[in-house]
Amino acid sequence: MSEGRYEPDVQHPRLAIEVKSRQSLPKWLLEATMQATLAARAEQLPVVVLHLVGTRHGDDLVVMTLDDFRVFVQEKYELV
After folding, report:
1. Is residue 47 in some structural domain?
2. Coil/strand/helix, residue 61
3. Cβ pair 73, 80 in contact under 8 A
4. Does residue 52 sit within a domain?
């Protein structure tokens, strides 16, 4: 955030990209991502949906690998 305004970490014409780096990620999250990857067929995009019990599903978070996201965006929207 600069001068009272929020700015994305990565400048892109159509995406507001926020990057968060950590020394480690929760094991359960990495395992869920791997489970989605192993379960996906060739034509499917592996995603993990994180839901906080008692909240709207529309507010859930979607997690996928950056490589999968790049391919999806490139194929569907030609944004990358």
Report:
1. yes
2. strand
3. yes
4. yes
Residue that is written with structure tokens 């094991």 in the block? 27
> What are the C-alpha distances in Å from 65 to residues 6, 7, 53?
25, 23, 24
Specify the amino acid at residue 23: Q
Q: Is residue 10 part of a domain?
A: no
Domain count, the chain: 1
pLDDT digits (tens, 9 = 90+) for 13-72: 888 999 999 999 999 999 999 999 999 999 999 999 999 999 999 999 999 999 999 999
In angstroms, rounded to a whole number, what is the distance separating the alpha carbons of residues 38 and 63?
A: 15
What single-letter DSSP state applies at residue 72? H
Is the residue at 14 inside a domain? Answer: no
Q: Where in the sequence is the domain holding 41, given as residue range(s)?
A: 27-77
